[in-house]
Here is the input.
Amino acid sequence: MPAPAAPKGMRDIIGDAFYKYQGFFEKAAEIASYYGFTPIETPILERKEIFEKTIGGGTDIVEKEMYTLRTKGGDILALRPEGTAAIMRAYVEHGMNALPQPVMLYYYGPFFRHERPQRGRFREFFQFGIESLGTKQSIADALTIRVSQIILEECGIKNLCVLINSIGDKDSRAGYVKDLTAYYRKRIDDLGPEDRERLKTNPLRILDSKDPKTKEINKGAPESIQYLNEACKEHFREVLEYLEEMGVPYRIENSLVRGLDYYTRTVFEIISDTPSSSSPRDASISPEKKEGDAPDAAPAEQATAQADPGAEPLALAGGGRYDNLAKIIGSRRDIPAVGASLGVDRIVSLPEYSAPPPRMLKSPKVYFIQIGTGAKLKSLNVIETLRKARIPVLQALNKNKLSAQLGIAEKLNIPYVLIFGQKEAIEGTVIVRDMSNHSQDTMPLTKLAEYLKGRK
Here is the structure.
């Protein structure tokens, strides 16, 4: 019988790896809270139709990747493959439209997709997300991008570039989809089976294709920004102006549509750029551009990272506006909203990742040793005294011999050892041994915390 193992694409997160994740979450939550976001936690299981309706037919997520189950009561549930639909469901269900708008939320946790595991991608993966619900203002789009960028930079990731596009609203997208469909039909013989099927169900999905032949075809495809109506064009122009004002490097990526059907207007990704990425150009949307002119690119000179030639740019965050999502899940009215999610697994695996350790974690510099029944009886009280003084300790209360406990302290390279024996238990003292030179001091328990805090 083979040894037990975690399911394919899933893994245990242990020791220092766990603290990397915890440190990222605390840093991201801190930044988000400074910008006005508050926490929310949604269930890991949602009704399947929440994702079927919102993510859309013709997507790999719905057709191939969702984990689903039928409950004993007959409900069909799905492990959440993404976070935004559930956030909108919670907004509608709890009447958050009655709160001051926008409602700004952040979340963190595991998500699930049955896809091929690869670099930085797992079947159980972790995301941190921010959502602003109840606003159509372009500044909310820019804020979402900026906060996502700040989180990445605060984690030590500096070579960042925002890829951005606008796919318009329902009105402006109709003509675009019509011409895009005509473009692909002329080249249908060069499309793979999967992309031919997408042409029937959702032509926009072809722009997301990973097929090398389709990628070449996509280079000549119609561009969504050429079809924007005046309102969408103005919204996009304002978003870019905010980014320029904040010094956020970006470039317009005409094939960017993101992988979910509910997006409208702004869509974006934040990548760790590489020399193999397409070279940024020096141009930008400005208020002076005339109607019908296409925005082509924006400053991103400082966004090129030093990486292996040929490496694919690594998308670390992505998101966009989803003004029609609420009606899709059953709301009586549209609720304008915008959000982003950050791929935590990819972020913490980067060599330059440097988020601080979790606040709850203080690397213990003290090892507590007890010897004898009387000392063991009082040991938990000593440890509790140190906890109240915010001094973490390591211990092996299950062991009795001094040599065994000292051996563990030496193996873990702990700077100080507390030795608490029968004599010390009676006198209310403890021996503090400096493991670097084996010098010892005997301290009253009442002064122990103050003494340890004074040690380096």
Notes: The two ends are 51 Å apart (CA to CA). The first strand starts at residue 38 and ends at 39. Residues 274-310 have pLDDT under 50 and may be disordered.
